[in-house]
Design brief:
Mean pLDDT: 93
Shape: globular
Strand order of the largest sheet: 7-6-8-5-9-10-11-12-13-14
Radius of gyration: 24 Å
Distance between the termini: 62 Å
Strand content: 15-25%
Structural class: alpha/beta
Length: about 525
Amino acid sequence: MITLQPMMSALSLPESVRQLLNPVMNQPFGQFVVDSRQVVQGDVFVLLKSQNATDSLDLEKVAGYLAQVADKAAFVLSEIDVSAIQSQFMLPIIYLPTIRDFLGSLIQTSLQQQHPTKLPAVIAVTGTNGKTTVSQLVAQLISQSGIKTAVMGTAGNGVLGEKGAPNLTPSTHTTLEVFNLQHAIDDFAKQGVQALAIEASSHGLHQQRLQGVPINVAMFTNLSRDHLDYHTDMDDYAQAKARLFDKAHFPTLTHAIINLDDEFSELMIEAANASHLTVWTYSLTNDQADFFAKTILPSLQGGDLTIALSKAVTPQGELTVNSPLLGRFNVANLLASIAGAFALSQSAAMGLSVAQIQAAVPTLRGATGRMDRVPSTSSCFIVDYAHTPDALEQVLTSLKSHCTGELWAVFGCGGDRDKGKRPLMAQAGLRLADKVILTADNPRSEDPNAILNDMQAGMTCQQHYQAIIEPDRQKAIEYAVQHAKPSDIVVIAGKGHETYQEIKGVRHDFDDKVVVKNAIEKFGK
């Protein structure tokens, strides 16, 4: 059991908050818990508001949560004003409307009180596309130099194994909720993890899930239309991303890595400069960037790159590498990853050398379900997570330059998400692919046919002839595999690493890679 009193010196809390905590300052407790069902005797229950903008405050439901913990919790810290029902419960309830400003630090400090451990140096990656790939690549680059490294994100969480191989367990969120995130970092620290690459989603940043995470290096990949069912507009979305470069939120920050080719790069650079961070940029087109792709010789096996390095990074000037990653946008992801590895090494004094990075690049593995080629003897079949118009456009543009036959695109749009991007997704596919099959993604609670109708809005007569509509995703994939000619490239986009399809609230087993593999065997491809 611990108390709040000895934790106060490690926490930068406003005096007003300290005053509110005075009544429970010396009350012994076990740990902070945010789920009323998981509270055991002596825990502190942290009562948080729903982050769903459409949810209204239901005091009856809140009373139910408090009733669950009434005879177990040492005390309650509440983001919700429960003064109207507080007299029903015989336990201290402290109203802290700003608790998210310090909850992560509170949980982290309590864990350190019980089991002191050295937390890993953290690199956090934000952006619409590329977060998973960049976080996994930078983790592999660091791991290859003998530094114990972990990764957390959409594709899963875990410690990298021998030779940088990912050993991941599935994750519930791209960026975990604050309680689970702090406990995961604490668990990694106990395993001796020295470096951690983590995806920072806009939801996670906006909801302050990353508060208290000791981030050294912040990275920005790009920004394109996504999550407008959550954010009010693109500016709101961009501002959520920019939080990652603000030392007021992340005081341990030292470096910012920013994609100079993205139109929102200026906003991110301004935020980083305002916090006096070391800012390094990367680019495929601007030779003023700190990491510039001087020459790119692509192939379906990857490509050879010459990277110009600014004197601000290293006096070496140039780095020549052989990349196993497909696609021009993966060149940008590689530049970001190399920059991130340099920055984290510098920030945390890890001593990663240019030679070590150069030697590690050919051994890199792309993230599962990101430009993931499924073996075949005829045609080329690629599974990719691209689920935004911009991501789909990048994937198809990258592969079109390699395609001597026809380029196929099989994709859909998720249900219960931003409906405005549905026709934009369809147009991106129709503009760049020779053959398009529109199908189901994760329809969730929606009718797949209704989603497909939304996707077809604004299509011309010629485009209707170009597209095949097949709501059954397995049949859509099988059709493409069966009819693809030897020189064709087929992209199955939208779900990538996912091993399920969510229909009417139920997750059914469905893995695009497995379905493609079975179809290849079925049709002798």
